[in-house]
Amino acid sequence: MTGGDGESILPLELQDVCYEAGGKRLIKDMNFRLEGDRTTMVLGPNGAGKSLLLRLCHGLLRPAAGRVVWHGAGGGDPARHQAMVFQRPVMLRRSAAANVDYALALRGLARAERAARVEDALDHTGLKRLAGHPARVLSFGEQQRLALARIWALRPQVLFLDEPTASLDPAATHSVEQIVTALRGRGTRIVMTTHDLGQAKRLGDEVLFLHRGRLLERSPAADFFAGPQNDLAQMFVAGELLWWRRQKRKLPTDVDPREGPR
Amino acid sequence: MNDFSDALSSALLLLLHWERDLAEIVALSLRVSLTAVVMAAVIGMPLGAALALFRFPGRQALVVLTSALMGLPPVVVGLIVYLLLSRSGALGVLGLLFTPTAMIIAQVTLITPIIAALVRQVIEDLWQEYAEQLRSLGAGPARALPTLLWDARFSLITAFLAGFGRASAEVGAVMIVGGNIDHVTRVMTTAIALEVSKGDLALALGLGIVLITLSIAVNATAFLVKERALRRQA
Ligand SMILES: Nc1ncnc2c1ncn2[C@@H]1O[C@H](COP(=O)(O)OP(=O)(O)O)[C@@H](O)[C@H]1O
Ligand SMILES: [Mg+2]
């Protein structure tokens, strides 16, 4: 079963992607290719550029240079087959069910199809009994699950999640992880950032390690957590603070991330 | 003090009897101001929303203009509309001067900027909050517009009521373009001004009481609408 209708829009390739804002180059010469059905964890200290990278991939930001290419999209619109979950869920001022329905209506689905998908999505995310509640009075954890219900109903091929559990308690985090795993089981390609290394180990198949807007390492998750090649990544896994100041350590030369996991 | 208590008791009597003249004046006031606020909303809401969502040449100037026009003195608006509608004016052929329609035009001019500016602020704030999520779901500004208007509905009602409050309370504009003609263009505010100048405080006070009651009702509605919205939708 595939995550969406028709052909896959993957592989996704970033070709020399740079992003600038406020006169600063925040993402530098990003090159990698994503395919297959692995779950990719994007890791790195605060301010590394993880959120920017996800937004560039998803098309919410335009690169200042370079290209974001969805090789499988052909002439179609790749945006239709992707979705994103943000750190802070954004819900419309209407019921939980209506929020899911809204996303489906934007994709042009017919009413009957929408109703069936909304019900199924709320069921799978444990929100059935809250279907008629105004979405914005739900707890933070419930709202994040509702954001995932929206995804469940949309059935995207590729899903970007930007620290979806950053402000959740362990129970809410657990249920978000369960839903993400189920989405992956349905064939959705997951790309996710997190500060929670345990979560990265639990969910990730491979890791992209970012630091100061650069991709410093790309490894299978098992290898990365056993011992990253990059010193900064090593410190990061060891839980050390990464300092911004350059004086401490020279940046190691980049791995060639285009190769992907060895 | 005696004058005042005499006036007050006559005013209350007037209100109690609710004479035809009084009823006529109140009815015309409501008709003019409600029509004006509906028309101002029809113009001001899309205008405000467009200013909030779209980037186009002249946008900045329009934003500044609507904000500046918010504080327009009613007499100045009255004067401008008067000049437009007077026989030698650009719209003189329509023969609208000293009719309720002229008063409506003046009030629409007066409150459209208020509604547009308030709506722009409300929609801009909401778009700030929703933009990324809605764009991710596939809705650009144009597609998001009805969603934003719907989600801002409670704040929009407040903007609407603010416009109505301003329209029903102003005297300068309707006085100039309406002329305060008995049975034709006399509304509460112009009647009050006239009666006071004539020294007939009873009718003035009676109308004043109606106006204040109206204003309290409008503000109470605005308050309750907001409260309800906060409780229900957060
Ligand atoms: N619009 C912007 N203007 C200027 N700097 C920005 C902007 N957006 C992000 N940044 C900076 O870019 C860096 C990367 O941000 P981000 O991708 O949010 O980091 P994180 O890895 O924590 O998600 C940060 O230093 C942030 O301050
Ligand atoms: Mg971030």
Descriptive tags:
heterodimer, A: 262 residues, alpha/beta, Rossmann fold, six-stranded mixed beta sheet, three-stranded antiparallel beta sheet, 9 strands, globular, B: 234 residues, mainly alpha, MetI-like fold, 10 helices, flat, binds adenosine-5'-diphosphate, binds magnesium ion
Quickly give the structural class of chain A: alpha/beta
Strand order of the largest sheet of chain A: 5-6-7-3-8-9
Overall CATH class of chain B: Mainly Alpha
Q: Biggest interface between protein chains, with counts per chain? A: A-B, 19 and 16 residues
What Rg of chain B is obtained from the alpha carbons, in whole angstroms? 21 Å
Helix and strand element order of chain B:
HHHHHHHHHH
Helix content of chain B: over 70%
What number is the mean pLDDT of chain B?
91
Order of helices and strands of chain A: EEEHEEHHHEHEHEEHH
Which hetero ligands occur in this complex? Answer: adenosine-5'-diphosphate, magnesium ion
CATH topology of chain A: Rossmann fold
- Shape summary of chain B: flat
Mean pLDDT of chain A, nearest integer?
A: 90
Give a count of the beta strands of chain A, DSSP E runs of length 2 or more. Answer: 9
CATH C-level name of chain A: Alpha Beta
Using the coordinates shown, work out and report the CATH topology of chain B.
Answer: MetI-like fold
Q: Which oligomerization state do the chains in this entry correspond to?
A: heterodimer
Beta-strand share of residues of chain B: under 5%
Percent helix of chain A: 25-40%
